[in-house]
Specification:
Blueprint (H helix, E strand, L loop, with lengths): L11 E13 L7 E10 L2 E7 H7 E16 L1 E6 L15 H13 L4 H17 L2 E6 L4 H11 L2 E8 L14 H10 L6 E7 L7 H14 L3 E5 L3 H11 L3 H7 L7 E5 L5 H10 L2 E4 L1 H6 L7 H7 L2 E4 L12 H16 L7 H15 L16 E5 L11 H8 L5 E6 L2 E5 L2 E2 L4 H19 L2
Parallel strand pairs: 1-4, 5-6, 6-7, 7-8, 9-10, 10-11, 11-12
Antiparallel strand pairs: 1-2, 2-3, 4-13, 13-14, 14-15, 15-16
């Protein structure tokens, strides 16, 4: 609802007024407005409401007419490894453990900052093009991804990944602590980039190192994230090593809390779901990656019904092979129905919540994922003239089931337009094509493929 003002009141200044045929607000009431507009000032949404009303009451420095378009909040990718765009299509059609140990890890061990930067910029371009405005990352030399995101205008939460065993990046888990502190200090004053503590998984980092890293997250007051219960094979490894299932390992160490975001949670029991809900622990669902690696189908609706905050992520481009949140939204809804044998499970509104407000909580950035007064001006537009979006009976349904991501015609973060009608405003995409070709030759040379 807009607030009326006396007719003789002077118009209120704003930086930008965006007009659209429809706006999916994702506010607390999940309002969908038609013939509406958004007034933006100082990187925030000032007001959302009827276009004629806002047009009369605001003196806009700039206007953006998105007639024939639908606005919705920028999508939030709750789990990805952005530089893994370099390995897109490199090792397909393999189960998780064979994929990791036999193909991905050997190539990753040889990546340098230059290659990681190219992969990160490629990832940023794909996110911007498909309407994602914020992401939770986990990889190596994370300052490279942070610089890429900041320069491109995207929001990011960075997690420097580490294992218990020696890697080319850290000889021990503890050796990563100083890097995490340095990363947090580097981006502390960046409005777009934050950090998280990121042990790889319960089967690659022992309980004592998981606990120590959580203490570091608490000391720095930043999120803590890890892969967990991704597949029955992972569970078997944990049982063999520690005699405990993955969730039980974390529970015993006191590592279930609202600060924690767990990625995948495919192989979880009903009792474990209740533990996640009671502790306020966040979960990110990765449907495309889980299907491609044949890890299983996460019991998403059961977790939601128990009160677990479940976000949505793409995982990396080597296990997806896209960073397109629209595809994962659709898959989350469709898989949820089959997993629970219920056509009403993980409905369109739920899937959109997962890709916006729920994922925002997983990032520790709960103000994202909505178009509402006082919240960040992060939003995207879909072209409703696309044949697959006509006619319109339900805008939310179209966003989840009909859109492909290629209908995105505008991406905005903090009031700045990053992409508009095919033009990338913060990236040299033609130059990236040449760099991607160079990277593909490098991957072939080091992998022998």
């Amino acid at each position: 609802m807009t607030t009326s003002v006396p007719a003789d009141s002077a118009p209120r200044a704003c930086d930008l007024l965006v007009r659209a045929d429809a706006i999916i607000t994702q506010d607390d009431d999940r309002r969908v407005l038609t013939g509406a507009a958004v007034a933006i000032g100082d990187d925030l949404v000032l007001e959302v409401g009827d276009y004629a009303d806002l047009d009369a009451r605001y003196d806009a420095a700039q206007r953006l007419d998105m007639s024939g378009k639908m606005l919705l909040p920028g999508l939030v990718n709750g789990h990805t490894h952005l530089p893994m765009t370099l390995l897109r299509g490199f090792a397909d059609d393999l189960p998780l453990m064979e994929w990791l140990e036999g193909h991905i890890w050997p190539v990753e061990a040889q990546l340098d900052e230059d290659l990681l930067g190219i992969g990160a910029r490629l990832g940023c371009a794909e996110l911007i093009r498909t309407g994602c405005t914020a992401f939770l990352n986990g990889y190596f030399h994370e300052y490279v991804t942070g610089d890429a995101a900041s320069n491109c205008g995207l929001r990011a939460v960075l997690g420097e990944g580490f294992f218990a065993f020696p890697s080319p990046f850290f000889p021990t888990a503890e050796a990563c602590w100083e890097t995490i502190r340095t990363l947090e200090a580097r981006f502390r004053d960046d409005p777009l980039v934050r950090t998280a503590v990121t042990p790889h998984a319960a089967f690659t980092v022992p309980p004592e190192d998981l606990a120590a890293s959580f203490e570091l997250a608490e000391a720095l007051d930043i999120p803590w994230q890890t892969h967990l219960a991704e597949s029955p094979a992972e569970t078997a490894v944990c049982l063999g090593k520690y005699g405990m299932r993955p969730v039980e390992i974390l529970r015993k160490e006191g590592l279930l809390s609202p600060r924690v975001t767990l990625h995948h949670c495919v192989d979880v029991t009903d009792g474990e779901i209740l533990q996640l809900a009671a502790s306020g622990t966040n979960v990110v669902h990765n449907p495309a990656s889980n299907l491609k690696l044949c890890s299983g189908m996460s019991p998403v609706q059961k977790m939601l019904d128990a009160g677990v905050n479940v976000g949505l992520g793409t995982d990396g481009a080597s296990s997806n092979n896209q960073l397109n949140m629209f595809r994962d939204m659709g898959l989350a809804a469709l898989i949820g129905k089959v997993r629970h044998e219920d056509a009403s499970a993980v409905n369109a509104g739920t899937a959109l919540d997962m890709a916006t407000r729920h994922s925002a909580r997983c990032l520790g950035w709960p103000e994202l994922g909505r178009i509402e007064a006082g919240f960040p001006a992060d939003m995207i537009a879909l072209d409703l003239s696309s044949p697959n979006l006509m006619p319109v009976f339900n805008h939310v349904s179209h966003a989840v089931y009909a859109a492909t991501g290629m209908e995105v015609c505008m991406t905005m973060v903090a009031g700045e337009v990053l992409y508009l009608y095919g033009e990338f405003r913060t990236l040299d995409v033609s130059g990236l094509r040449k760099e991607a070709l160079r990277c593909s030759k490098w991957v072939r040379s080091v992998s022998g493929k």
